[in-house]
Amino acid sequence: EYIKNWAYKHPTPIDFFRSMDNGTGEDLSWFWRGWFMNSWKVDQSITEVKPFMKEARLAGYTIKVNNLEKMPMPIILQIKLKSGKTETIKVPVDVWMKNTSWLVRYNTTEEIKEVILDPEKLIPDGNAQNNKWVSDGNNGVSTPNIDGLLGTYSSAAIPIKIKLSKVDGALMAQATGQPMFALTFDSGNKYIFEEGGIEVEFSTDKTGFTLSQGGSSFVFTKDK
After folding, report:
1. Which of 134, 158, 183 is the last residue of a domain?
2. Which residues of 126-155 are buried (b: 16+ CB within 10 A; e: fewer)?
3. Cβ neighbours around 189 below 10 Å, total
4. Domains identified in the chain, total number
5. Does residue 174 sit in the same domain as residue 102?
6. What is the largest CA-CA distance in the chain?
7. Which of 96, 140, 164, 214 has its CA 20 to 30 A from that of 125?
8. What was the pLDDT predicted at 6?
9. Can you tell me the distance from the alpha carbon of 29 to that of 42, in angstroms, rounded to the nearest whole number?
10. pTM, entire model
């Protein structure tokens, strides 16, 4: 189509770029900028592989990928599970248009043993040393003992109480007049209720917590 449209004419590089964009139906400006107009480098890295829980059980992992150089390229991840099963996940290049870091969420009840960026080496990554993550054997899937967190908590800022209880090994929360919901261990002293956008971070002495939701935070202390 390009040859047909520009036969016996004098197209510029911009004309070629625009023709390719129109032919593919995609905005390839990121490609032309990186490969033709500049000499940008590629360096993607796996910076963190973190498990997340649901009702005290492993529900999956978040895999943090950073784009350390200017050149954006699609993310290709090969995930190897404890059973030996492997799966490839592809994330389009668009995620780098406004971000330098991206979290890939992978749902599984099985432990991840290894994650590799660009396993077939299709991308000219300038630093292959940060393209692989291997489990240390623990994977951080063990959860802390929640017995010390149980009880009823009050806040001086809002007139509600929150009761924390243990149901089938899971930490459950119930605010005054509200249905019960599960708090999932995140990291450190923090638990989350993802569906409600709620974060609960306990104090180091486990006598209270800060509840955050929608940009607001409230301090709760355990009733004596």
Report:
1. 134
2. eeeeebebebeeebeeebeebeebeeebbb
3. 16
4. 3
5. no
6. 88
7. 140
8. 76
9. 16
10. 0.61
